[in-house]
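Hi C.,

You asked whether I'd gotten around to modeling the 976-residue construct. I have! Everything is below, sequence then structure, no commentary in between.
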Amino acid sequence: MNSKNTKAGLHKVLVNKSLVLTFVMLFLSVVAFAQGKKQVSGTINDNTGMGMPGVSVIEVGTTNSVATDIDGKFVITATVGSTLEISFIGYETQSVTVTENTSNIELTLQEGALMLDAVELVSVGYGTMRKQDLTGAISTVGEKDLVKGNVTSTERVLQGKVAGLAVVQDTGDPSSGSSLRLRGGTSLTASNSPLIVVDGVAGVDINVVQPSDIKSIDVLKDASATAIYGSRGANGVIIITTKSGKKGLSVVYNGFTSVGKASNNLDLLSANQWRAYVRDNNLMDAVDYGADTNWQKEIQQTAYSQNHSLSINSGSEDGGLRASLQYFDNEGIIKRSGMERLSGNISVYQYALDKAIKFDMGLMANIDKWHPVDYRIFERSFNLNPTIPVYDENGDFTSVGGTLYENPVEILTNRTADSKRHRLLGYFKTEVNLFNDFKAVVNTSLEHNALNADQYKPSYAVLEGRTENGYGQKTYGEYTTAQVEAYLNYNKMFGKHSVNGMLGYSYLENVYEGFGAQRSGFETDLFGYNNLGAGYNYRLGDVYSYKGKSNLVSFFGRANYSYDGKYMATATVRRDGSSRFGANNKWGVFPSASVAWRISDENFMDWSDNWLGNLKIRAGYGVTGNQDGIGEYKSLSILGVGQDSYYNPATDSWSLAYSPTQNPNPDLKWEETQQLNLGLDFTLFNRISGSFEYYSKTTKDLLYTYQVPQPPYLVGTMLANVGELSNKGVELTLSADIINNDKFTWSVNTNFSHNKQMIEKLSNQTYDTDVIYSGSLHGLSGMSNQFSQIIAEGYPVGTFWGKEFLGFDENGEFILSEEDKAIGDVQPDLIMGLSMNFTYDKFDFGFTSYGMFGQEVLNATNMMLYTPNRLPAYNVPDDFIGSGINSAPTFSSYWIEKASFFRLQTVTLGYTFPFKDNGSKLRIYVLGENLAVFTNYDGTDPEVNLTGLDNPGMDRFNNFPRPRTFSVGLNFTLSK
């Protein structure tokens, strides 16, 4: 054979064999790949059995990774024979080898050395993040740290719990809520309350959620955290996560009964003290009616309250539910002021398509019924002579003529006032795992609130009833908000890099409507408010109705990046379009950015490992808005019915004329807040964790109604964006596990905050005002059309403005300064909260407290009561006798008091009986509320309203006393 041909043939054979071998290897590789990849699902729990979200599951040696969802579940496709590494900061890392038989993994992670406060999951708006990875200022309050007891409004559970958040309850009325203000107010006329988000639904009424259904609350403070909510985020955001179904079966009952009395009353003259004064001063015209009446206590009662809640939880790997029902009855310490509430909550989750899809549904509803109190009873209870009996010799209410001298018990008794409020929130959320790294979420929701208010004053009632020959009124109002939000999340880890992105769209529609009717002149009182047509007196305005609608369309996005867990950055942007805005400003853009550096993880910090952890510095800046000050149609020209009439010759009659009532303003827009935040987080000795914040925020384009010339304007006022307001402050939060062993634990939580507010600007070239007067004194004796406060450049909101008290002359008259000046302000210098919890064996003990310091209050009640011409007809405080005051009521700095206080809010002692290892237990406890207030303030309570322009920082006869309450309760948990 030719050697050349032989070599050629051999080459051909080798090539063919190589081709065959290549195809064989390729085929085997495909087969091996097809056989070697396997989809693995699983659940990661903590040591309490709760699913852990945000846990990293990574295929070792690859970039293939996923994170667990909110329930601790995950799905990953991995190679047979590979190792999955499951890790979460603060917990021991675990590894699992993937075999042919591996399909479902269920692990319980054990806590590591790092404190859990540094690794908890936090809601950040349209998602969650580990607290370890936060770049913004966010505070979290867990279920066990919420304020407990007779909580009639849900916002009270945060009182004293969050640095920078002022929760002010200025009344003991069980039907009244509390005001919320975060890092100072940002508006003059709009709401200063944070945006409320419940289970992902933004802008809802916080009281649709009951305290017993709350799992955690996250408070977003700075603009880098709140800008994702755009034109609604300027006042901060409070995100509430409710309890949901979890694996297992359990039934929980919580109940208590309580008794309460007024914690404080004004110290007025008793009947014997009044008689002694009359005798000592030889007041011959004084009338002694023979009784000994404490009018304040006559309108009060011992309030008995009860609360019962029952919840059922049932869940498995694929689905579950939680349902709760609660009944709350608070009698109120003022007679006929009680409130009843019935509430329910149900949440359901279900997985489908091998956990590629998750459905969540929730429904919350409650009904409140209460009897509103006529607050005029308090002034009357201070005025009436203590010798006047409640009832005369015929058993009728005693009636003595005089100005503001009606019998307060009669006012309470001889009227019917019934109010009813319905709240409902429902949502349906779908989550779809599109790929390993992408998740799509669609959340639809509907909120509906309605309020009925009815009252009737019979023809024999002293206030309005007699003069009107019976007066009846019925009002109804409701609003409905529908929202659809869709967003896409991307989450990827590769090596030391972690990237998260989110893009979303939101559509909101709000519709509100209502009507009212009133009538007087009734031939009989038998119908009450149920037959207004029976009244024969009809006046213009007795019947009215209204309806309005607004829309908000938004596009939003967020990007998070982290390298090696040490360097983190976040950027967000939102674009809002609102029907409320003027034609020239229909859309607003709200960006933010923040960065963080975990210094403690750097090699040069190794020397501090034994005592310092999670040392992280943060910086953020962002722009947010507040559109609450713009009501519907405020940018448009509006016509309304006035008092004028015109003659219509076609009908030969006179008709009411329509005329302009509002000028158009096409430039009307949101109030814009720009905020810088610098933060420091730290952990000391694995026992103490804390954060320090510095912020500076400026609100521009403040809304206010300005006077404008006529012409060219048709109406003399205009709502416009003009002013500027600044807030600067610092916050400190500390938490410590001082002692933590099997027998005894002692934990402490405290926070402090300081804020300084200033009006920077009120006018521009078009709209001008030197000062805005607020804090009206109108209605007080001798003070018609007077004001106690100003809003002016260079001063904080709520600055008291008047004459300075210099002393008394020889006749007991006030000596006052000639010029008006700033004589105080309502802004507190320091707000703090302090709570401690102890456990010993099966006993637990704890207390919560809070305080406000540096604010000043106008004691207008004392200003009216400390008057010499009140006696003997009217009552006066005890210490007025001998005070030497001999002057008519005059507003001055004499009546401005330091109103700093520290309140012991709750004290609890409990004992727990454990039943079985499965978690069943019974706990009994006693609870005291509002046990002590440490203050130098002379009024009944130093905690007064600090918001709005009407009467901030003013104690003005609206002293609905706060109760001091003692409760006995039990918690029972049955687990299977």
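If it helps when you're writing up: The first strand starts at residue 37 and ends at 45.

Thanks,
B.
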